[in-house]
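Standup, Tuesday
Yesterday: got the pipeline producing structure tokens again.
Today: sanity-check two examples.
Blockers: none.

Example 1:
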Amino acid sequence: MAESTRSESFWKNPEYLSWFTADTASAVGLSIKTLSLSLLGYSVSGSLVSAGWLGTLSLVAQQGLSIFGGTYIDRHDRKRLIAFNALAGFVLWGTIAILGLVNHLSFTVLIVLSVTASAINGFLGGATDAMLRSIIGVRNYPKARSINEGRDSTVNMTGSPLSGFLYSLHPMLPFFTASFMYAIAGIAAFGLKTGNQQIEKTQSDRKSYGQDFLSGWKWSLKRKTVVLSVSAASLASFGINGIQYAIQLDLTGKRVNSTYIGLVGAGICLGMIAGSLIANKISNTAPVGKSVGLAFACISLFMIPMVVSGNQLVIIICNSLIGVPFPIINSLLVGFIFAKAPNRMQGRIGVTLTAPSQMASAFCSAIAGTLLTAIGFRATVMVFSSTFFLGTLMILASRSIRQIPSSPQWEEAVL
């Protein structure tokens, strides 16, 4: 498929519209049940620790399967995988809603269904990101990612309070809604083409699954910039996600209204919307390395008041400001690595970039719940913040990251 030359053509491309609809509907389905899952887990079990482990087990299943899913995605028709993932979300989250409605939902059944849904999403969910590179060209890729960042931030901002509001009306409403959104994603997937699958299948036939799996990790581990970026991102992600879970679980334990908890979570998403607008403006001109270093430094500065102050208003404001630099980091640094990776390896490279940080973050929910009980809220925030500070130092100290140029020079730049 010919690469689009202008960002305006995104919305005139029928395949991009189908892709965007499927990806957005899936994102809404994921967002609208995330907060409610923790609330439901606490309601069914009556324990903060159990509620924390429910989120952790789901994330472990999702991230654990995603490690192997990237290779599978590169070897099969991505359109069919997107459709099957949507079908699984529709059935499994719908089942939770129905069982809860008739009062037959135990904590064990909730764990089994949510972990299964998360595992399938982890294994196949990367198919949408892997397919984007077949639709959008290298030069416009950072702009496309900034659009996605804004979309994701908007979804997360509205999804969290809407999830809390729906849960306050009836605990099963968020799960019925999630099931419906996955159904929309499945329908939209039929508007996609198979992309470059024919080429990928021919190449995959020459190698075993294991060889293809290892090739993705070898590609990433041989590139110093990728290794440093992933290492720093893993520490940063652990710190940020830990703080988010600490705030959410602390308020849940204090029996704060679920709608208010959702609104607190929406603050960081509002910051990310502002950040995505900035990223969209600078995506084609800003020097990637310097911009990313500045973004990490800003997040570290926003964290300091959260550590030294126990004031809830200060924490909420700083937590919201933390969201501003993230879309810049994702659209520029992550966009650069994806753009330099071969199209046939997008699924595998996506795994090597995200799996380490996501696996570390998968334990944040359980750790936050345990630390809150043992040492309190303020000390818990301090523990998670320290890991982000370490990741920031790695980014600022890396010469190879600081020297990454702006997107017009990406084709000539060496990764």
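Example 2:
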Amino acid sequence: MRSSAPPSRVYVARLAGTPVFDPLGDQVGRVHDVVVLVRAKGSPRAVGLVVEVSGKRRVFVPLTRVTSVDAGAVITTGLVNIRRFSRRATETLVVAELLDRPVTLRDGSGSAVIEDVAMEQQRNGDWLVTKLFVRRSGRGLRRGEAFVVDVNEVTGFAASPAQQGATALLATLEDLKPADIADVLRDLPDARRLEVAAELDDERLADVLEELGEEDRVSIVSGLDLERAADVLDAMQPDDAADLVAELPTETASELLERMEPDEAEDVRRLLAYDEHTAGGLMTTEPVILPPEATIATALAHARRQDVTPALAAMVFVVRPPLETPTGKLLGVVHLQEALREPPHQLLGSILDKDIDALAPEDGIGKVTRLLATYNLTALPVVDAGGRLVGAVSVDDVLDHLLPDDWRDADDDVTDEAMTRSAHG
């Protein structure tokens, strides 16, 4: 890392996403963020990279183990600690916490917002934050002007991110899957997490909440105003919404149910009546449901809906009217693979699988798991005593309940150990 050459300047926002290679040229991951220490005196010091490796795991790579860094490639010594990165109280993440932060220019010309942060390698090998790419805010003819300024020419760089905007961070999340956004939110300080979550639209936030652990999603929903929180719950899958409502304080849960759309609230109330480890507590009330006279083309169109998970899309539940749960009598199911073998105009009633085992709402998770595994299915119907479909249990919901409560936050080796203990009683 030592060099007699002039300082090498790297802009962090451009560095994010850059491939990280070992000395042999094999890619080990991609840069996710840069960790800096903001000091009371002197320029902030960059101490390491947060690198996303296989399995979406984020690990810390000290800059002392980086032999080359630029916007095209990062080369490391090959020694990467596989422990999941956890931000310390003294550390600040550039992309997650500094971008969009408002600062005041010391020359008295007004305020600006940070859009990028530059770090430079010093002759002693240290990396310091030296420059900020900022855009003027406020009023005046120069509003919107973008320029580079020395880090010591602004105040507020080390301020609390409470009023920090989320524009730049949201831009980096735009193409990520909900589970990956959930990973990003888990790494943020509480206030920053709520701010970013609040800027997501209802559908996007609903998808992300379904991927978060209990503590994080309760914290986010509790931080939203009641109307917004109710709208987000309306957008969630009923089973996930019910799980979340069950985790909230009783008074808050009651107020949210009153503000939700009546049909959505009714589904949630129905699911809350079941124990969480039964088929009724695991099921969703909104699988793909069609009458026997519907065509295969119609079934495929329903399976393509974005709000239908892959596990539920693999099976169409064919019933007598009404088609909303609780439906009329369950006639059977049509497997997506079977439907793809038939012409689009074929009626669902002519290719029914009538031999599928249905669950009762009170059946335990053990029976659910055995049936899914025995028949290699991704979902099972849940029916009441009259044979009416009341919901469906999918394999992903079962996995959520079989894994440890903190599986989203745990390292893979910890999760493997817990699952092994569970499997062996």
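Quick observation on example 2: The chain is about 35% helix and 20% strand. The two ends are 51 Å apart (CA to CA).
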